[in-house]
Every structure is written in C-alpha cells, then in structure tokens.
Inverse folding.
C-alpha cells in the first residue's frame, strides 16, 4: 500500500470515529483538492446539518459527501421529490442525474432558493432522495460559452474524474524534499506590459502563475523554455494558477498542453469560461490575419477539462507544501489576487495579478487582507509618478459630455473596448445616463465578443457588486438588458448601415486596436469629421491604439481588396481619451493597496509595467514604507528563506 492509500485508510478510520453509529462510510478518495466521502447512508448524513462542516474543520480538508449508487432513488422519482422540495420561484430549468457519482445537477434561475438558508434546502433534498445536489445558474442572457463549457464538462465527466483523482494523489503525496526554500522566477511582464508568467518554486513544488501573450508584439512569449519552467519537461510543473482571463495573462495557457502538460489549472469559475471565450477568439483572429496559431482549439478544450474552479476565500491545498487562496482583485469578472501559504508557516507570497483598489460600478475593490504576506508581486501598469487617473465621477461626466457634443452634430462615438470588463462598465454608465436623461436616447451597438462577455457576467452575479447583483436577479431591472443595446451580428452590412444611420454609440473590440471588428469601424467612421474615437482603456506600447492616441492620423487597415498589402486610411474623426475607466489601479491606488495591508509585506516586486512605471513605483514604495522593493527584469530569480 503506497503512502496515499495509507493516508486515505487512516482518514477513513478517523472519519468513522467522528460519526454517529447510524452513518456508514464505504470509501474515501481524493478528487483534486477535495476529500470525497462515499456513504450508504446519505440521508442520515444530511440529517446531521453541521456534520460535514465539523469534519472539514477537524481534518482541515474540503469534503464532499456522495452516496453509493445502489442506495439512490430512481431519477424520475427523485425529480418529482426535488421539485416538491424546491420552491417554484427558483425556476428550475432542468435536472441532470449522474448515477456514477450520485450527483444531480440542478439548473435554476435563482440558485439561492435551491440552496436555502445555510444549505438547508440542499440537505433536505439529500434527506428525501439520497442524491447529492449541485446547483448552477440559468444565464439571464443566453450564453453559448457557458452552455458549451457545461456540455463539454458533462461529456468529459468520467475522464475529468480520473484527472482529478490523479491530481488529488499528487497534492496529498508525501513530501520528499529535506530542504526548505522559496524562489520566484520571472518569465515575462517585467519592465513591460504583457506576457505575464512567473514560476513559484519550493524544494518540493513548482507552480506557474499566468501564461499570457504581449499585445502588439507578435512572437514575444514568456520564457517557458528555461529550466525553471518547461525546460526540464512540461510535467515538472505541478500546477498552474490563472489570476484572470485577459489574454496578456491567459492566452498561452493552452500551449502548455501542446508541450505535454497534464496537470491542474486553478482559477475562478468565470475566469475558466472567459478564458475559453478569449482563447478561441485569439485563434480565430490569428487565422484571419494569416498567422499560424500557436495551438489549436483541442488544447483549449484540454485546458477547460483540467481546470479546478475555486471560490474567493477558499483555502485550498494545491501541493503537499502549498495552500492557495484566491481573493477578489476588482479588475475583471473573476479576477483574483492569489495568496500562497508555503510549508508549515514557512513563507507567504501574494501575486496581485491586475488589480483595481477602489470600488467600480461592476466590482468591489481589490482585497488586501491576508494573515501574512512576506513578499508581494505587484502590478505596476499605472505605477509611474504621474499616473493618476481621473476621479470616476469626473470621467463619467467627461464621457457624457463627449457623447452629447458628438450626438448634437450628428456623429457617431466609436469606443474601442476590451470585451471583458471595460465594456460592461461603460454599458452601465450609458444605461444610467440615458435612463436619467443625462445623454439623449440613442442606439448603443456592441460588436465583437462584447455581448457574449456580457452574458457571462450576468451568469455569475455573485462576483459583481452587491447592488448590481440584486438588479440582475430581477429581469425588469437588469441593466444589461436595456433596450438601447444592440448586438451586432450582421457583419459588414450591418456595420455599414449603422455608420450611415445617424447618431449612435459603438463599442467594439479590440480594446487596443490590434485587430478585430474595430478595424472595420475605422473604415466606416474614421473619415467622418463629425464623429469621435474615444479611448477609455490602457493602450500598450506598440499597439495601433497607442499610436493613434499619440497623434497618428494615417493608419493601416488591412488588405481590404485582397491585393496582399495593407491600405492606409486618413482619420478625420476627432480623437479623445477619457481616463478613469481602466480596470487597473492608478499610482495612488497601488500605493494605497500596499499602505492598508496589515501587516505589510517585507518585500515587493514591481512588475507588469513599462520601465519608468516599475522603477517609479518601486522607488516610491521603498521611500514611503521603508521596505525592500525591486523592479526585476525578465529571467531573474529571487530566493527567500
């Protein structure tokens, strides 16, 4: 019997010793970070409401209880009973029974009513029918991404279980190393924005945090080939942690599977779905632009299959010597500050990913409340000494003024926007402004992936601000369903018709004008002197958006006539920048994030910013807080302990 089997047998004995005599345990196993307890008495288990919580606390494990298949009610009988227990107001859309695991997936418009206070309704379901209920939300806006991911995971359920069992055994293996140390190696996004990638190493474990591309710089990828990463084999990496779905952090995660990686990806559930959406679009754009994609769609499916979703605040074992906790980063849907607790109190490291410290219309501000953090890896996108963003109210006031002036002269406002995050923020501003009469009623056209990304936001309202979440729960108040929003799905003909049809607002990807439908809108609206191009998000060095922002008015727009060369367009439209809508904290926000940490970290690595920004922020934090700070270059390694 190997060490994992011995540990499981010991856990089974310990669990049995804690249970009342009428509850039987038939087996225990690991699935990823969870301990799964199989029982022939699920109804009795459910009758003891605090039992699972007490076991989880005592064993310091995440525990799932599943019934043995031969003690379950039949699916037809169980469905009838479940619909009796759950209030009609929950609006159950469907039930999916999985006899192999004894689970029933309940899809409902209002999951909270299926769960009940403190999980009371879930326990009642198990008491009545034996099945273990799992609840998912019916998207208020139909989402092909959410539907496809759920169907795919359903089809791959058996293989996914095998993957999770293998991962669980890796996590709970015996520690083999005698030494204790912690290292961080920088594989990208140092003194630059994009291609985020770091390796967190211990004597026992190697974890890759993010794996993104670099906007506007084809071919510049993280240094994955070095020995600290994949140089000694793809499976020398024990786990991947994804802070959020933006491509400069996630685009190349599927590439790992092409190289032979076969381990887990840890992230939030919305990050998983958004990563799938953005990765497939990434491949599509590359193909349309005549570039060879770095991987194919099968690798995206492998990534989704290997994803282990975590909720904010859950402390999760991801290796024998590492616990991971994800916290809200306030940046985009599902974005996470990733906190690593290493060893038995040996060391603590937090990776900020991208953060927004203050509350926005979409999200609560980033969490920085950790029991301990010795080293913080901090984004510095707006870390420069003059990088102070406009107050949000002032930004909204300026945007509304630009829209009113453009509308009054009969023009179109064209806003290049990231599909995820900034688009939904702008949609909320526009919906409220039209509802209150601050700007005239006019169509708001959403192009690219914006509508699909918005549908994903509405699927996961628990990740949004409280007041917005409550509005989404009521269809007649859901701001994303406002009648002025029009999803562009008719391609070039519809764009031409919109451009010729009078004042309107167009939100289109890509946000940095590196391709996508925004190029088509430039052709249609760019020569119009009464229209305006309005930047509301960060424009990275090397992107077309940055060049236009800096005054360039002759822009390449691609090979429209199929002659094999780019055409040049003269921009006649006005160009304006409205700061304050970025998903990133500005200089003040970054300083406040560190200032209000208690205790503060001993060391800060300033990353994900151009050279001036990281050096300015590193110097400021050193002088203000008397801490050791660094502005690392790519391919540096820092050893702690």
């Amino acid at each position: 019997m190997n060490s994992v089997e011995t540990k499981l047998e010991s856990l089974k004995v310990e669990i049995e010793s804690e249970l009342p005599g009428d509850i039987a345990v038939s087996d225990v196993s690991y699935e990823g970070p969870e301990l799964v307890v199989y029982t022939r008495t699920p109804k009795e288990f459910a009758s003891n409401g605090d039992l699972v919580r007490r076991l989880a606390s005592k064993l310091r494990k995440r525990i799932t209880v599943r019934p043995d298949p031969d003690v379950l009610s039949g699916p037809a009988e169980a469905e009838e009973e479940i619909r009796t227990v759950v209030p009609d107001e929950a609006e159950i859309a469907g039930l999916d029974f999985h006899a192999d695991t004894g689970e029933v997936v309940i899809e409902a418009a209002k999951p909270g009513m299926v769960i009940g206070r403190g999980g009371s309704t879930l326990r009642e379901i198990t008491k009545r029918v034996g099945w273990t209920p799992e609840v998912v939300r019916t998207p208020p806006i139909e989402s092909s991404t959410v539907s496809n991911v759920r169907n795919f995971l359903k089809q791959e359920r058996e293989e996914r279980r095998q993957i999770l069992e293998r991962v669980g055994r890796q996590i709970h293996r015996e520690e083999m190393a005698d030494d204790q140390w912690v290292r961080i190696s920088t594989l990208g996004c140092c003194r630059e924005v994009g291609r985020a990638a770091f390796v967190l190493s211990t004597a026992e474990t190697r974890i890759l945090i993010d794996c993104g591309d670099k906007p506007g710089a084809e071919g510049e990828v993280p240094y994955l080939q070095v020995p600290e990463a994949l140089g000694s084999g793809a499976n020398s990496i024990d786990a991947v942690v994804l802070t959020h779905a933006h491509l400069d952090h996630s685009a190349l995660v599927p590439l790992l599977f092409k190289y032979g990686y076969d381990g887990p990806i840890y992230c939030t559930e919305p990050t998983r779905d958004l990563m799938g959406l953005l990765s497939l679009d990434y491949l599509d754009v590359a193909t349309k632009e005549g570039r060879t994609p770095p991987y194919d769609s099968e690798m995206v499916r492998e990534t989704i299959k290997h994803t282990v979703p975590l909720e904010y605040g859950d402390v999760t074992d991801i290796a024998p010597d590492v616990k991971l906790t994800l916290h809200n980063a306030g940046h985009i849907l599902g974005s996470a500050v990733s906190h690593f607790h290493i060893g038995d109190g040996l060391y603590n490291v937090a990776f900020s990913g991208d953060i927004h410290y203050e509350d926005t219309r979409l999200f609560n501000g980033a969490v920085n409340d950790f029991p301990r953090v010795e080293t913080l890896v901090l984004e510095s996108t707006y870390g420069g000494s003059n990088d102070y963003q406009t107050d949000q109210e002032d930004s909204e006031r300026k945007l509304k003024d630009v829209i009113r002036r453009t509308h009054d002269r009969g023009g179109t406002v064209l806003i290049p926007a990231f599909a995820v995050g900034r688009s939904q923020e702008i949609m909320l501003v526009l919906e409220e402004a039209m509802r209150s009469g601050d700007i005239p009623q006019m169509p708001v056209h959403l192009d690219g992936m914006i509508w699909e990304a918005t549908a994903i936001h509405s699927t996961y309202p628990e990740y949004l601000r409280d007041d917005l979440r409550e509005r989404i729960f009521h269809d007649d108040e859901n701001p994303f369903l406002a009648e002025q929003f029009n999803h562009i799905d008719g391609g070039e003909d519809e764009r031409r018709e919109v451009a010729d049809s009078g004042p309107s607002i167009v939100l289109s990807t890509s946000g940095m004008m590196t391709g996508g439908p925004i190029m088509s809108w430039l052709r249609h609206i760019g020569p119009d002197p009464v229209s305006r191009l309005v930047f509301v998000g960060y424009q990275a060095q090397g992107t077309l958006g940055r060049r236009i922002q800096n005054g360039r008015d002759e822009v390449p727009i691609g090979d429209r006539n199929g002659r094999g060369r780019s055409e040049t367009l003269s921009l006649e439209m006005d160009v304006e920048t409205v700061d304050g809508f970025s998903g990133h904290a500005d200089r003040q926000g970054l300083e406040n994030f560190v200032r209000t940490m208690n205790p503060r970290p001993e060391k800060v690595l300033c990353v994900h910013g151009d050279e001036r920004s990281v050096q300015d922020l590193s110097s400021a934090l050193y002088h203000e807080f008397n801490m050791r700070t660094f502005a690392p270059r790519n391919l540096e390694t820092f050893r702690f302990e």
